[in-house]
Design goal:
The protein is α/β, with parallel strands linked by helices and 438 residues long. The chain contains 22 helices and 13 strands.
Length: 438
């Protein structure tokens, strides 16, 4: 790492960011002269998780393995990533995080992936946006420049939402000076991220990689070769002369990135086709006894279901040229069928309540508006969610898990507007179709 300085503060230690953002920072260091390090902050938990401890023991060095097909040819590329300084815990190491923010002039970017439920405002809770507000106050008081925020959570307008939450905390504290400083000194970008990251390799592959590397990397992370990153830069920042492409030279590093003032067309395509198809299918796939996404695609019944929701139900709701929609839908199936990804269904099932609200519900509402009736497959995915959340395999927030553990009725679940953003029983025929699917 040499004398490189920390330029990126990253909230989230998970596999995705390490195979996406940290991999990209490595590319910028190698090919675009970025010359910076990432300091990771583990946002939840009282202490560092075992993978975080391993990463620290390795001085932040790990490997990515990108496996799949490119142009019909099998690809399996292992890269050493040494763009990470290490991992701090947001609770036990908070003083160190604040000291980093207040004493590191080189620190410029803040990236995050705290799941869809992470960017939220709760007045008396220690949320991720509240942590950000505290750090910005420390930054302001240190007299250092503001930050560029590049959140990667899969919610619409993630940057705008994060900014709104942060400013609300400043308002709660009556800190007008902080609010004014944030408006003047900080830039909040919204993003779209696209890469399927499987995480740890299976044991056979891990042993093969260990032999190839001459060591056993327990934090090696596997993903697909495909990647796509859209960063929406606020028009006001661009008008003021802010040049993200110069400061964060992803394109120069060969990364498949788009800098744009309007990312909505890209977001709708990706979230509905790729993420929506995942969320609408994997819960039922787990209940049916499957382990990986590629197993679902290889199964004739689930393959038909994928095609139904992709080409019949999602397809009509995306406003892009037919050729673009067809090409992307086909690419989604090819990526899902990648046997090298080992993309576990249970990994995708994490926080499915918030994911379903963001990834599936908007498509259902648009489909009904355009067609006059509901899409059977996507509506049926709610039945799968209810069945799944009645099992012991659920991994969600404590509040969500406690709610389902109380065994509420189907109608009560559908009326839970703080889960779905609306009372789902107000959608004509929705409740009846869910109950029929159950």
């Amino acid at each position: 790492m040499g004398d490189r300085q920390v330029k990126v503060l990253q909230f989230g230690e998970g596999n995705f960011l390490r195979c996406f953002i940290d991999w990209m920072v490595q590319r910028m260091n190698d090919k675009a002269g970025f010359d910076g390090l990432v300091q990771i902050v583990q946002p939840i938990g009282d202490e560092l998780s075992p993978p975080s401890k391993i990463l620290n023991a390795r001085n932040g060095v790990y490997h990515t393995c990108l496996r799949g097909f490119v142009g019909g040819k099998k690809v399996e590329e292992i890269e050493e990533i040494h763009s990470v300084k290490g991992v701090l815990n947001a609770k036990s190491d908070w003083q160190a995080v604040e000291e980093l923010v207040g004493n590191t002039p080189s620190l410029r970017f803040v990236v995050s992936n705290t799941t869809e439920a992470g960017i939220e405002y709760k007045k008396d809770a220690d949320t991720f946006p509240r942590k950000v507000a505290l750090l910005l106050k420390a930054r302001m008081e240190a007299g250092l420049p503001g930050f560029v925020f590049i959140p990667c959570e899969l919610i619409e307008h993630n940057g705008d939402t994060l900014k709104k939450c942060v400013l609300q905390y400043a308002a709660d504290w009556g800190d007008d000076a902080l609010a004014a400083w944030i408006e003047k000194e900080c830039v909040f970008c919204s993003t779209l991220v696209d890469r399927i990251v499987a995480g740890r390799p299976d044991e056979e592959s891990a042993a093969r990689y260990a032999e190839r590397l001459g060591e056993r990397d327990e934090v090696l992370v596997c993903g697909e070769p495909f990647h796509f990153f859209v960063i929406e830069v606020p028009k006001s920042a661009m008008a003021a002369g802010f040049d993200l492409e110069r400061e964060f030279p992803l394109k120069k590093a060969g990364v498949n990135v788009v800098y744009t003032p309007d990312m909505q067309p890209y977001r709708t395509r990706k979230v509905r086709f790729l993420n929506g198809a995942h969320t609408a299918t994997v819960l039922e796939g787990h209940l049916a006894g499957f382990t990986f996404v590629h197993e679902l695609v290889a199964d004739p019944k689930f393959n038909d279901f994928f095609r139904q929701i992709l080409f019949e139900e999602i397809f009509p709701t995306v406003d892009l040229p037919v050729e673009e929609r067809l090409a992307y839908a086909e690419s989604v199936l090819e990526r899902f069928a990648n046997p090298f990804a080992n993309h576990r269904l249970l990994s995708i099932c994490l926080n499915s309540v918030s994911k379903w609200k963001v990834r599936v519900l908007p498509t259902i509402l648009d489909y009904r508006k355009r067609k006059g009736f509901l899409p059977k497959g996507l509506v049926g995915s709610m039945a799968s969610l209810i069945k799944f959340y009645r099992t012991d395999a659920v991994n969600d927030s404590p509040e969500v898990m406690a709610y389902f553990k109380a065994n509420p009725s189907v109608d009560d679940i559908l009326r839970k507007s703080d889960f779905w953003g609306m009372d789902l029983t107000t959608i004509p025929d929705f409740a009846e179709m869910v109950k029929a699917a159950l």
